[in-house]
Protein 1
Amino acid sequence: MSAVVTQLVRRLTVPAVAASLMKEELCLALAAVAQLRPSLSTATGGGTSASPLSTETLARRSLRLLPRCTPQEVRMIANGAHALEWFSSPSLLVTEALARTLYRHTVNAGQSAIEAKSAATHKVRLGDILAVVQLASEAQRYFDATIFLLATQHAVKVGAQSTSMSAAVAEEFVAVICGYAGEADGAAAVERLAALLEASPTFASNSPGLAVLKACMRDRPLKVADKWAVSYARWAQRRRSILEHVRTTGDAAAPTDAAEGVARTPIQLLKARYDAWQVVLALLAEEEEVSDHRLQRALEAAGVCHIQDPVTLSTLDRTVALRVASSTLPNAVLISYENRVYAQAHYYPQALAALKQRDADTSSAVAGASAVASFSSQPTAEALQRVPVIRRVYKDTVAGAVVAEKDLFQITTVIDMSSADEVAMAACVFARVKEVPTSLLILLPRQLMSLTVEGVVALVRASRHDRRGALSTVLQECLRTSAHLQECILSAPTELLVELAEALSRPVSRWTSPSDEMRALEEQVVDMVIAHVLPQAEQMPLSTLLLVMTIGGFHLARTDDLVQAVCNRLADHLVAAVTPPSIILCVEVLAALHSGDSRQERLLDVLGDATAAHFSPLLESTISADASCLAGLVRFATTQVKYGSPEMAAVGTGLVQRVRQGGWDALPPEMLVAAALFALDSSALISSTASLELPHAVVVHLVEAQRLPSMMTVDLAIALVQLMELMPTVDAENAQALVSHVLRVASGLSPVEVARLLALRHRSSTAAATPSVEVEAVHYSTVSRHVLALPPDTFTSLCLVAAQPAFDTVLANLLVDMLPLMADSLSAHQLSQCVFGLGEMADAGQRLSHQVMTEALSDYVVDNIELFTSGRDIAALLHGFAKLQCTKRNLYSVFSTQLLRRPIIATLEFRSISLLFFAFGSARFVNKDLMDILSRTFVVHVDSLAAPDVLMSLRGLSRMNLLNATFYRKVGRRAIELIDEFPLQAQCDLLHAYGAVEEAHPKLAATLSKRIAAAVESLPSVSVATDVLTSLWLMGADMVMDEDIRTIIDYVVQHASQLTGPDIMKLCSIALNQNWKQPQLLHGMAARAIELQEKQQLEPTAARAVLDTLSSQLVFHHAARVHLSQLARTVSKEMVLLSGEEQEQLNLITSH
């Protein structure tokens, strides 16, 4: 019979049949399946193997029909889903859809003004709710607020409307509700239902179900009917296991593998769902104040985890709407709410309306104030002409600003009324920060012939940022219209053509690969631009010549002639001028040459003569220079150091010689800083000794003689920042003094310069003895708004100091979020350093945004593994990912194979090997061949290891459970030599590493136990002391006679009230194995176990272990036997779980 049913179900799963099922047919089929319980695998061939029965087509058909189903039909689908085990496929989301449909019916049924016919349609029965809740228990959807309310509130209300209740229904209610909601909340729901039934005038008082409910209220721990005992035990165990995972603060990187291996959700996402669920329950209960931070984290979790349960979304929507309406809400918090709400505006209509109303009120207030202030004045041009939102946001995006979700939302609302150029600009904005919407991909091809050069530039920029390659086809079609492009280029200003060349010069995203046809089309467009601009070079004004000169830096094909012509024209202009060029013009030309990567000798000779004439007064014995001359000198020095022209180096060489003559007190600080920069100029003919000594001497003189003005110029501030960056080493105290002076004028610096200054400040703060100068929050905000405009080296420098204690948390997390967007502009070394630096943050991997970043970036580095040819870079990269709690096995597998290549593994150093041990150990990924090679290298050079290398390597190798007696013996000996360099927690970690692999090292164990015992009161918790004892036991230490171990035991006895369940289990294992005679410890463990049991925080296995330990040591503890015996009996016998068919066969056998 079962085989026949299975064949019929298999027939229903055929896509054509499943898609043709009507709602009633599907429900009847699933109801029959729930009754017949077919086997989910069928024998094949000779009956030796089995193929699974896939019913995904039926599940997807159910999802399509669910919105039109009645509550009774929802129950039929839920029962069928349970029989077909759809809960084992989390991607189907059948449980959530069933709960949403049933919740909608409960809400509609509760409305007062509802027709009788509609009331019958929406009538929800208790069995309907129990079927959905039971499926949720199997699917382990414990953190769904809609299902939780269905179980604890709506089931009680529906059950209270009954006139009678059978014992079977009551038993099902108790088992299902308590199994899903937990014993505490479930028992409370049972108690409320019993009270409502007793108070109901229509309910039969002699109903057998009421007696079952009352009996449940009296029994603790909860007893369920035998029919539900196995299922209830399984649900309770799963729920308890998941709650332990999300509540623990331990190894958050481990995946959540619940009982029977059903749940495979990463623990970070599960924690996020749990936290959001807790926030929603707190908001519904209105018993505690939920902080803005917790509410924002809940909104973040709802977006990242794609939470769609209506109770969560409506509760968050209502709460945020009330919060943003408050006039006292801080601006930073308001911006955070805006970004969360606008990102998912369709889920939060009330909050969206509140934000729009707030904006309207603010605009009205500003307009009213402006009207009063300008009553007698004429309106400005800005007031008469408003820049369209798309152009404003596009301009900010090109400038490197971080785009707010509010701006993206506004773009989507006006895109249908925008021009073709604005549509291309919108595509560029979306491509820079996220994926291009489908609506834009559909709209763009229709408007290609309406694009101007400005729109083509935006489209090319969008294609360079497009990480999915969705715009490649659109751009290809655009570039194919050569006649239209030629017409646009002929009518476009030179500035736009330079922007087009700059956009075409950018490499495509590493996420994609360009086609040969696309390259040919782009080269054709470049030829059009050059052919149009080249004849105009003779008539171009000076400013346009400087702009066109930058094309040389784009490294496009066939641009040399254009750059040469522009340089010749510029040199002619300077020679023909009546007056010598100003120093400002000389610096601008030099900067243009640097941007264009051009070295035209004639132009450089002209510039060299002009700058030498300008700065000749500075080389005399008596300095006579005004402020403009000194400002020009500093700007020239900063530009020349970056450009490195030998033709211009003569000026720097003369200045360095003048400064080395002495008399620094009479020299202006600008001249000293410029000389220090020229000394570091690689093109200058200055000895290596002078190039190192002079900058250090200048820095010391400026600080000790207090030569810097209280309010320096911006040019001098930029020069000081560049000087500190170029110097290989700078004394931390002197660096902090210079930074404090520059910070006074930081408000006048560009965002990039502020970012460089912040990196210097935090890089030198760790080594400085004096307290570091405080940085105003506005400087962090400036960098945060323009973080995408940072050069790769500056972005990398910020990532490397993001873990410093004084670094701004908001900016640090923004760096994490922006790293995938900056990845294309970073080299392999820079990307590795960024991940390494961010991995050192205190909360690395704990935030949900960190997991989103590592998920995207790990795929990126795997796809671009050919970039990583240095073992040191790979070690830093993997260590950063490990600290960020990324455990994707594909990442470690691919890079472990890459490391086995001889040219790459030869570049490793000892520090890198210890980082690799730690990374692979954190992920618990083992490549035996690689580990053997690294271990042999490590052991050979063990005497060169530092304390951090010893600790990381031991922890990593032990986490991989690799046995290597030689490694542990020699590294342990090195650890003893460096024992004074290990702090207390590191000493405990060393013991844990050896205990994890049960590797004996008597000398190390004795040394560490003595030191830990001497500082036992400084241990962070009694759990750490318990782990120390466990590790010493596993290392084979003498747990009975050792005085140091006895000291640690005494500490555990004194703090026994703080033991956890796992701690008690470990101590019981030691006591049973070592036959410990520790009556005080045993009594403390028993008392603590009783406390945990009363709080329902003790596992049955722990209760069993406590009783067994007490009896083995002949310790009688009456209270423990009274309170723990019943819980311990649940694991006293082995319980075999049978399938439905096996249980039926067993019943048939035993019934005869």
Note: The CA atoms of residues 701 and 707 lie 8 Å apart.
Protein 2
Amino acid sequence: MGKTAYQKLENEEEKEKKVNPKRNANIFSKITFSWMNKIFVIGSKRPLEEQDLFPLLDEDKSDVLTDRLEKEWGKELKKKEQGKRPRFWKALMRVSPWSEYFCIIMLVLTDMANRMTLPVLLGFLISYLMGIRDLGASFKYILPTGICITSLGRNLAQHHYQNRSALLGMRFRAATTGILYRKVLRMSKSKLAKISSGHVINLVSNDIQRLDLATQNLFASLRSPFDLVVLGILLWILIGWQAVTGLAFALILIPYEAEMTGWVAKLRMESARVTDRRLEVMNEIISGIRAVKMYAWEWPYRDAVKKIRRAEILIMRKIYGILASFASLQHTYDSVICLIAFVTLVFTGTRLTPFNIFTMVGLLSENRRSLVYGLTDGMQLIADCFASLDRIEHFLLIEELANGKNGRHSKKKDSFKDQKPKEEGNYIKATDLTCHWNGLSESPVLSNINLELKDSKLALITGPVGCGKSTLLLTLLEELMPTSGEIQRKGSIVYVPQTAWVFSGTVRENILFSKPYDEKRYKETIEACDLTKDIERLPDGDETTLGERGASLSGGQKARVNLARAVYADADIYLLDDPLSAVDAKVGKHIFETCISGMLSNKIRVLVTHQLQYLKNADFVMILDSKGTIEHEGDYFQLQESGLDLDSIEEELRIGNEKYYAIHGVESTTKKESEKPKEPDIRETTSSKPVAGKGLASVTEDRSVGTISAGLYWRYFRSGLHAVLLILLILLFLVAQASIISPNLWLVHMSRMKWVEQKHKVNLIIYGALVGGALSLAIIRGLLYYITTLRCSETLHDKMVLSILKSPVLFYDTNPSGRILNRFSKDIGIVDEFLPPTSLLALQYILQTLASMCVTCSTNYYAIIGVIPMIIGFLLINRYYLKTSREIKRMEAISQSPVLAHIADTLEGISLIRTYHMENKFMEKFNEVQDHRSQIWFLVPHSARWMGIRLDFVCTAFVAIATFSGVSFETDAGTLGLSLVYAISTVGQLQFAMRQTADVENMMTSVERVMTYTELEEETGYHIKKKAPSDWPTTGDVKFENVSLQYYEGGPQVLQNLNISIKGGERVGVAGRTGAGKSSLVSALFRMPDPTGQIVIDNQQILELNIQNARRVISVITQNPTLFSGPLRNNLDPFSNYNDAEIWNVLDQVEMKDKVADLPGELYFTLSESGNNFGVGERQLLCLARALLNKNKIIVMDEATANVDFNTDKSIQETIRSKFNNCTVITIAHRLNTILDYDKVLVMEKGRAMEFGHPDELLKNKDGLLTELVRNQASALM
């Protein structure tokens, strides 16, 4: 991988000097998290940087955890042999040592004991003050002291078990992500073709996020049933059996919550599938953005994504409808339980006293979170987690490559050696191969293929489009396992795919591919692949940084870099999938003679090509028919003897050069080749000078610093709700909170009543009405809030999609696809799933805390003495904390992008990664970016606990003031009970509220990141309202006037002062060496980006028109054909403007009718991601069919037939002549014979128009550039 992809944090010497302070912290420091002080000191002075991070502990490293999980998963897989189902969650649980679980359980029990003890002490204190119990004068202060100590102990235990749970979640996440990545490295190309990249990205981002969150809440949820039992026992002992009747409500909740949790889990699975589809479409848009823009399909794809998003939001609304009932119980369930218990007490003749009221209220208040959260949100999180674990488990159970990733050929190699013990040297042999892509239900792609090659043999494989040539190479590579037959080979093997794979690194890094640098071999390689001059012209030579997917290079240059990588690898067997199709004849001849037949002459080579002029040079030729069977095979002379008319094939190759031969004679070809030019070639003398400019490096991901402003919250909520409605929602929250505390205020009032008054039905009805009102308002509050946040999320997502579609292609060339997808996966996932419940919980607890302080101070004025310093302390600690935690969260949000980008790169280049045995290197790089993420995430829970413990000290001081002041001064027992219940609850509530608030602010960084992408720089043409007349263009005149083009600021001029005029209806061919600027001409015409100068179509200056209006009138078929997943018909006619008959007609014209008719579903056959279930040549033909269907006046074809055979090419050229006879056709071609009968030919070099005119006139100039190009091609084809 390139240096620009993932930067190292520091050199190894610096890393060794740093030690994680947690490792050497003393016991006090560990209890209070004081070892985190250093990071907070730095964060308070300046934004944190990567060098400030603590080194990752060895036990938290990705490779250690993944190895451990893989070992345990291997044990689970052995269960399949016994007929049992392997369970991934069991393997995952065994990743962490059991001692860790024991520590967490002991801390949970400590927390539980303190929570139960605290209300009991409060009850004893109230009974003492009431005179019920005579405990001695000293207990007047011993009990308050015990309350304070127990309160602090409870919180310390809670912080430490939650911190350990969070770290456990981090380890689970790292281990699961690691095993998923290793699984990808072991999956065949055929299996991965059936799984969208969106599915893999969703597993890594959202599913593992749920696993992480559920782990943090696992133990809180599991303790809930035990809390319920202990609570029932205490209530029975302290108050009586009547108090336990209220817990019946909690028992009733359990089956309701279990049922609803099951529904939520099912809805989550359904939502995950929709999210997979959304991410799949977004990934296709990102990778095929040029096609989307050229066809002006931004709005159809915006609508397609919006439609999927609507379905996703609809499911989310159902989920949040259920969760609203859960959220309402957070602060009302204890009121319902108390209502049932107290009504039972009254009806059974037991008077309501401050003791039984506030002992029960205190116990329920203290255990509110563990009971309600555990039985509602906790169960829901665990159910979501198991749904995600099922998805991960299903992925891990997909069949892998035979014999694993290491030495997967060894068994076959040995068996072959046993059969032929005397055989020496390298070989590859295929016996009776039959292959299917989609199972036996469909026709085989290859049938009964036999091939055997030994040392230094060159096999040439050819045949019509779609006959299975590329499939044969993938089968030989064992990326597609044959249905029947056997493959045997000896020797290392490399593969050059038809679609070049170039990553964002330097040219040298792409060629070396982590191999040691050998200067001699490197120079030989770039010379053999004809890259020397291209590299010299780059700004920094071979150290020039390429953009995403090699955006700085032309198609031909990418193909040659791809080939150079294979050549430098120095393997024994080479599988070459049509590497000559993307280059011109001269370069192709150079590569064939110098590279394939020269530098690789001592290797076994299997070359798939349509360049039939090389038949004579092959040791073995295999010609496949359209059904994937061998039609002819043997060497050149054997083919002649078999009756194959090779003379007619050779004659076909010469067609198109007649004009050259007629003008210069046949002899001149050889003559010109042998003669040295007397004058230096302009191109040769200037090409050695580097072009001014700089490389196209990936930009650093944006990261905001500083506080999350109130304006961000306002813009977030305003994106989903009108300002007036937003104010009404705030008022609803206040009214609902007042209604929630009203039942307890009424209880204080009832405790002062006489027994006769307490029994009065009116008082009980009022109490019941207050509880019912609180519950109803809480449900309405939660439901409306969730609806609002979902509307916000939906609006922001739609804006982000629109902004992405309007962004210039430079944005995509400088931002890794994983980085962009991270906004649509993790960030939107947080905004969808985690921000709404967390923010609602934060708001509820903030309001509850404020209410608690108000009640405490109104009933005990001395408590105000503690409130003011407590609020000041909270604000100071929180402010100090947020300076650091905010930056940690921002860094953490960014840290996932390299992980996703690395996975996306791996999915795209998986065949090459395995071919070059780079699995370990890529795994090391993955571990590096994963460890970097864990290194940042390590600080997230620790920083939260650092704050929480300090807030608890402040809260404990407040409780002490409230308790001792209440005891010291004579106070009514009921009033004191209410005051102390709310004061004690403030301890947990306030720090939890602040922690939730901090979590919300951290999650708002995702909103911030999404909003950043809603405000990206747009292509200027979208805002232009001017449109051409509806019948424009009528003739198709095209003029380029002083047109220059620069892809990015500071980059080289790829077009320079271009001045040409094309009349309507003319067919114009564009010729030139690879990298001459031919495709840049297309970019300028489509304003990608806007060029300088003027481009005029039928008297309309297109730079003054709306950009979509200008693009829509031009049909284009590019050298990288782009299809999208979904029905084939939608790819041809996304607007449904044509009937089926018209579509079948164009398919017939491009010779794809029979192929489509054989597909299941025919026109409605579902294409896989990026149309990968069609070959490159077939995709080009389908794109051509799309252009024929649109019937535009201007047609641009950029190497549109580069990947098809000569017969298909000839047929297509006839179709172009007949069907586009009234259209302006601009054709970029390396096969010059296809454009020599055009009306004009434009010859380009270095972005300049060197020659432009009728080909007859240009060919008369024996020193002309077109003449030289044709001469080179004629020489190459002879």
Note: The chain is about 60% helix and 10% strand.
Protein 3
Amino acid sequence: MNFNLSEWALKNKGLVLYFMILLGLIGIVSYSKLSQSEDPPFTFKVMVIQTYWPGASAKEVSLQVTDRIEKELMTTGQYDRIMAYSRPGESMVTFVAKDSLASKDVADVWYNVRKKVGDIRHELPQGVQGPFFNDEFGDTFGNIYVLKGKDFDYATLKEYADRLQLQLQRVKDVAKVELIGLQDQKIWIEISNTKAIQLGVPVMAIQQALQQQNATTQSGFFETGSDRIQVRVSGALNSVEELRQMPLLVNGKTIQLGDVAEVYRGFSDPAQPRMRFMGENGIGIAVSMRKGGDILALGKHLEQEFAHLQKTLPLGMELQKVSDQPVAVKRSINEFMKVLAEAVIIVLLVSFFSLGFRTGLVVAFSIPLVLAMTFAGMQLFDVGLHKISLGALILALGLLVDDAIIAIEMMAIKMEQGYSRLQAAGHAWRTTAFPMLTGTLITAAGFLPIATAASSTGEYTRSIFQVVTIAFLVSWLAAVLFVPYLGDKLLPDFNKDLIQKAPWYQRLWARLRKQPEPAPIVHHAGEHYDPYETRFYQGFRRWVDACVTYRKTVIAATVGIFILSILMFKLVPQQFFPPSNRAEILIDLKLEEGASLKATEAAVKKVEAFLSKQEGIDNYVAYVGIGSPRFYLPLDQQLPQSSFAQFVVLASSLEDRNEIRKSLSDQIRRLLPEVRTRVSLLENGPPVGYPLQFRVSGEDLGLVREWAQKVAATVSENPNTTNVHLDWGEPSKVIKLQIDQDRARQLGVSSSELANVLNSSILGAGIDQYREKRELIEIRLRGAQAERVEVASLASLAVPTATGRSVPLAQLAKIEYGFEEGLIWHRNRLPTITVRADIRSKLQPATVVNELKEPLEKIRSELPNGYLLQVGGTVEESARGQNSVNAGMPLFLAVVMTLLMIQLKSFSRAFIVFLTAPLGIIGVVLFLLIFNKPFGFVAMLGTIALSGMIMRNSLILIDQIEQDIQAGESQWDAIINATVRRCRPIVLTALAAVLAMIPLSRSIFFGPMAVAIMGGLIVATLLTLFFLPALYAQWFKVKKSLNSV
């Protein structure tokens, strides 16, 4: 290719300058327009199908409803797993779509699920309500507020919450505003069962009278010559008092409803799941951001609206902040920007120290230019700023100056050797541009497995590939187009007599030791100066010569160390994703299955009283009967159940968070010994839940429980586990009425009528609706307090018969007390119990699972045929992510090999470069062990990418050797001279990359990746300079010629 882009740049300086300014401005504008969020966009491939069958037991629901839906869903073939639970009267099936499914295809799967379940609707038992579908699980409610007021009831609070909801919906970038912890209003008519029978007031009479009076019925209209006049009939209820005064015709007499029943306005009883903030009931207002919005801009708008709304509330009512994602994101972005600035300063210092001030200045100017072009690329490909893309930017920073360093170093050397600016730039293009491009593409290809990973984990980390590839490609463009221009303007002119002082740090060192300054080097015009004749390069040349001479020893030693590092890799702790650096702590409370919401609320109040005395806590919020809404994208959301409550405790700082977590865990366990408690931090990456999970599945529920208990006992024996439990299996209390069917027939009472009488008396029956403004309030009729609360009063409940008389329930039925399954979990249609546990020590889940491998294998071998024992939790999710990345490895290898063959045009030379790729493992293992960092998913991505970085340096060196051989040097001299000449750019680029990683190594999320790359790159650089020449010489059987240096 004869076209020389670097020479063209120097011949068209005005145009190049214009492009530099233009791209810089585009970059600044693009940066201001990038969407900012805490986590990358992420698709939750989950759909929930809920069905209700009032009156059925958990077992009946499981067999008649849940199993039918599961069976039909399995025919879609698009599921990763189908999990379902059955409770008395309720079935909930969770369809988790294949992890490998692309986000754009998820909507089609949801359509297919709806269609399939709709097709079997007629096969479900009579009386079933639903199925109802919900696939909106990805909404993150980053801003949560609570409206509370001691002197206000839920009705008043809701009225104000509705107004606030409407006003918040109008704020720019807001997508959804949802109210949490609402209690539906009810109008209760309470009448004693016995009293109603004595007075001869049948329930039907009340219902009939109410419906006839309160109905909205058309009365017609008059059509006159000039107008249409509507006719309206009174009777509709306007207040609770009117309901009390409603007349009833009983035995020919008219009485008022208030005379025989207590009528009052109240709320759902039993209560609905509620939200409590700092020990008080309140209504939560959760705000989510529209897709592609800017969370910081939204935060600013909400802050202004929040201040305004607080002023509109009546005295005694407060609107308070519970969760503020923009603040967390701002802190996170500021932290990353600080790290980015530190990395930039480090790279600049490396450039100034090693290249000299003027040459370093060229690299310094190229950094903002490359960053600006990268931001423009991110805007173009719709990659926003979040913790993954920001980490990728810092990761790329150490590497994106590589091309600039290589290009300017070559140009400076050639100018020192007497070339003109134009010739030096042209020579840099001819010798380094294409090896650099191939090397850049190989480094980018190192991140290719992330781009092709078809999994949630791959989707979560994909922007690493996008950002790094954009940065690398624009850095190459800058190196061949803009760096020659900057070099032309900034490099000294070596064609004049030039007195070059010794580097400033050498002069400073001499002064500190009170010694004379090193003599300056005088370059005379036209003199050919060889910078490779210094003492350092002569010493380095001897080392390389020795390595090539004793090449077999060098190769054997390297291979030995490599094998040792592979064996030592087992000592490195394994991890999936590290915990988040958010200040929130989660506290889960789980009472026994079947516990009432009142019991759960009592436990919550105990924890609230305890938390109110703790220091280092900004606030705490409790969700009773339900888990927290998704205020943080990777939150492991909990299903609604009356026996469950979740606290979100906001610590004052990260340091406080870790201390509070440790103390809370033990203290809450002592405070509530009868409740299963768990104190955990927020996760990074796809939600997992408990780190240790072992699933036991099989057809017979009794056997599954028996084996699950054996597994739990085995897990408990491990000293590193704590909080070991089964996720379900406790029976619930039940009262069974064995009806004497003969006697019931004689009295004209059916099982269905008896069930209705009991339901109406205990829970209440909906008989009509009361209309008030926008509200529709249900009117429910139920028994008196004593009949509803005291189980003993059940026997004396009066049951109306066909003759109009009543008999006590005890005469119709035998009352038995017992237990039944309160909850049944299925996984892919098999009853499944999961043994879950936390880790007591600092060990990683994979390590503990390995410790448990043998005893669990023993249990697995004893399991009956068709019964399964599977590992779940962190280890399963990690393996899924790992497998999706591994699937992209063949493509990575094919792309790299193709690029090497195009550049080197020799299978042997391409293979030599390829062989150096895995040697980075030596440094990775060494550094992870020294700094005690776990090898997680992110570190694995770093290690794969590292192989690309190593091959890049090897490629540039091999290409230089080939160029020297073609220029007429002997093979031996070409190997030594090329290595000496490439030493400085290889060491400098590695040094820039390694030192730029130091600020990133402090990050909880990217720390292990940074440490792995630092270690791998340091060792790989040494191997490139000493092992690669030896390998090349051995491969091509190079012999030392007589006239070799």
Note: Residues 748 and 802 are 5 Å apart (CA to CA).
